[in-house]
């Protein structure tokens, strides 16, 4: 056994991730080990890791440091890793005697917040005169989890956080009783926070999903590789046929959209959604946010403050429509046909082209591939010898939207949580399915305005009123669309605690954002998916006051 003492020259402090365990980067020196009370039993070669918290404050998580014992630290010997155990010395529930704790940080991972013991066993009382915490010696215990943020002002904002602290009892270090620090490691596999996608102004053009230089380079390579080769037959849907493997997915996306709308109608009766009367901004919560971000009429007179009113379902789900094509390979819609061609929701049009049969919106279904006679010219194959098609039942029955009289709020808290979970699942199904359909069925978007067209080429209607539309004679600047162009997420501010105080203008940089659907479901009790936690900043502690925010380094 070796008694380890603080070595300012070799030992270091840093925030450690899993990939940094072997790299052993250095940071500022450790402080607080001047008297050398800490004893560490080294049973294998270094480096070793642990986080320290001052005795008496460890349960509150103050002054937490990641300590790295350098590989060249003086050691008497190195042996194989020790077995996991808790060594208890003394008696009584308070552990008034001496104690030793065995842990190795390379095995430490995250758990949800809480002061509890996992698997079996319990966490005993805290003795302010002896040790920060103690555990009962239970052989089957695997982890000890504790809440280090208990006494901070931002503790309430981390209730939904996935940050946690778990001490894996697979020992490589032994700490003896002293007035120094208690070890455990904090690690996260997901980014702590991220910004919401950029909102482009009216004077900015959307960027191409793939840079135009890369598109031209790929086109040249494609022409070069296909030179002197026979022309291959076009695959569906370019040959006019429907991709049969995606027909069930199209029905699934269509029904997911209907379920999403119906459930949102019910949730909006129990979750308050505010809409500004002058601009298109909305806020989910009992009160509107105080941020001065209104850009509507008379915004300067109101100093950018919003005038909050009631909202409708169209404020949450953007009513993005597109022209319905009877033949997706037919001629482009002219400007004089812009009022004679029906318009449907863009997601519905994508599902129709993917194989969904809706009697109100008929579309041409070819049973033979088209015959190309030129680069942009083709003729339909002769289908007269084919038997008449028999009506096929849909893979799944189509759902319908609820009438206003049929919308009822959830009757209990359990039902509210269930509806919120179903709504969030429908939102994810619709977006994931639409993304797969967009890989086969091309969707175009104007680079200057939100206009969307589902088809191989955009329409010719000259109804673009965006920046410098006079120079383009009102024509759209078509480019490939991404998922957020087809289904805008509509980001809103995340409210950390619905029952707590309203958002403060001075703490704006600490608040996160989330799509309106996700925020409604989260406030209704649904579990937030991992892909939204970074933008919602659930892992960031929000100060309780401006004075506390000024202390943030």
Automatic annotation (TrEMBL):
Annotated spans, Disordered: 219-239
Membrane spanning stretches: 99-118
Signal peptide: none
Biased composition (Basic and acidic residues): 219-228
A Pfam family per the record: Cu_bind_like
GO molecular function: electron transfer activity; RNA binding
APO domain residues: 275-360, 445-530
Domain of life: Eukaryota
Stretches assigned to the Phytocyanin domain: 1-70
UniProt-listed InterPro entries: APO_dom, Cupredoxin, Phytocyanin_dom
Keyword hit for Transmembrane: yes
Keyword field: Membrane, Transmembrane, Transmembrane helix
Protein name: APO protein 2, chloroplastic
Species of provenance: Thlaspi arvense
């Amino acid at each position: 056994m070796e008694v380890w003492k603080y070595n300012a020259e070799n030992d270091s402090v840093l925030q450690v991730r899993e990939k940094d365990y072997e790299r052993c980067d250095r940071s500022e020196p450790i402080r607080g080990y001047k008297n050398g009370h800490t004893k560490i039993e080294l049973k294998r070669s270094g480096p070793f890791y642990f986080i320290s918290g001052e005795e008496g404050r460890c349960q509150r998580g103050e002054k937490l440091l990641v300590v790295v014992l350098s590989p060249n630290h003086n050691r008497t010997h190195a042996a194989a890793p020790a077995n996991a155990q808790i060594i208890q010395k003394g008696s009584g529930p308070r552990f008034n005697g001496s104690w030793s704790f065995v842990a190795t940080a390379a095995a430490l991972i995250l758990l949800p917040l809480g002061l509890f013991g996992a698997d079996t066993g319990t966490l005993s009382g805290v003795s302010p005169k002896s040790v920060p915490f103690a555990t009962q010696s239970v052989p089957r215990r695997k982890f000890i989890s504790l809440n280090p943020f208990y006494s901070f002002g931002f503790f309430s904002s981390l209730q939904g956080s996935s940050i946690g602290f778990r001490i894996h009892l697979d020992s490589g270090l032994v700490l003896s009783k002293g007035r120094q620090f208690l070890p455990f490691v904090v690690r996260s596999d997901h980014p702590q926070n991220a910004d919401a996608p950029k909102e482009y102004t009216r004077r900015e053009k959307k960027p191409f999903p793939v840079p135009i230089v890369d598109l031209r380079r790929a086109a040249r390579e494609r022409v070069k590789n296909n030179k002197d080769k026979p022309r291959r037959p076009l695959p569906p849907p370019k040959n006019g046929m429907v991709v049969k493997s995606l027909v069930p997915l199209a029905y699934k996306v269509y029904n997911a959209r209907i379920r999403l709308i119906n459930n949102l109608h019910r949730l909006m009766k129990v979750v308050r959604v505010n809409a500004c009367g002058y601009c298109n901004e909305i806020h989910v919560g009992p009160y509107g946010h105080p941020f001065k971000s209104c850009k509507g009429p008379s915004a300067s007179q109101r100093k950018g403050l919003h005038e909050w009113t009631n909202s409708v379902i169209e404020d949450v789900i953007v009513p993005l429509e597109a022209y319905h094509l009877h033949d997706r390979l037919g001629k482009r819609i002219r400007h004089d046909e812009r009022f004679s061609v029906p318009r449907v929701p863009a997601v519905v049009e994508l599902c129709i082209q993917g194989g969904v049969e809706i009697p109100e919106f008929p579309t041409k279904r070819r049973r033979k591939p088209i015959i190309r006679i030129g680069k942009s010219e083709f003729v339909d194959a002769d289908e007269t010898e084919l038997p008449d098609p028999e009506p096929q039942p849909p893979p799944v029955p189509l759902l319908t939207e609820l009438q206003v009289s049929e919308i009822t709020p959830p009757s209990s808290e359990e039902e509210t949580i269930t509806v919120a979970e179903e709504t969030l699942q429908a939102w994810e199904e619709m977006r994931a399915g639409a993304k797969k359909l967009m890989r086969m069925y091309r969707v175009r978007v104007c680079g200057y305005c939100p206009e969307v067209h589902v088809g191989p080429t955009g329409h010719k209607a000259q109804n673009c009123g965006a920046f410098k539309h006079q120079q383009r004679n009102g024509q759209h600047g078509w480019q490939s669309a991404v998922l957020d162009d087809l289904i805008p997420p509509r980001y809103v501010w995340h409210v950390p605690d619905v029952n707590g105080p309203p958002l403060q203008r001075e703490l704006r940089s600490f608040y996160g954002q989330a799509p309106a659907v996700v925020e409604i479901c989260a406030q209704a009790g649904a579990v937030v998916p991992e892909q939204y936690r970074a933008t919602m900043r659930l892992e960031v502690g929000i100060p309780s006051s401006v004075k506390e925010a000024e202390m943030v380094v």
